[in-house]
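It would be a great kindness if you could assist me with a short task in structural biology. The full record is reproduced below for your convenience:
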Amino acid sequence: MEGLPRHFFLDNAFAEKAYLDKALPIGKEQTISQPYTVAFMTEALRVEKRQRVLEIGTGSGYQAAILSMLGARVFTIERQAALYRRTSELLKKLGFPQIRCYLRDGYKGLPEMAPFDRIIVTAGAPKVPSALLEQLKIGGLMIIPVGKKSQQMYRITRTAEEEWEKEKLGRFRFVPFVEGINPDEDI
């Protein structure tokens, strides 16, 4: 994380706050997660080089860039058209053209690219979407915060074709995981 300047992923108005351990706004009522949360989720995901990682909630692109720097092959989904366009361009400009960005409904995942070794969800889901469970490779891991006002972070391991194990990792607060796509171009 030290090798990736967080301020690159923020509006200039927040540059002086970029290195505080707090979530900051990025537009469309979304935030860039606090550095502790990014580090926690990244470590819990146990990413290995060349693994296929699906990220739900591209947001600023910071988490996707961190995963890419660890050697993951990153596929990331954003539902906000304005954030998707801005972040896709930013990632290319910062030297991450290998990160594949999609404007999609994160609840549906990316079935045409599945299965994934790892899935990371960066928004608070009211429940674990079954489509994402199905897109996880046997032996694969998913990190997902589940709950309404605050979330329980889970690490879910797919142990067999129809079996998953859940492990509680602690409580966090995220913006809500919302279904659908928002084509609105305003930020």
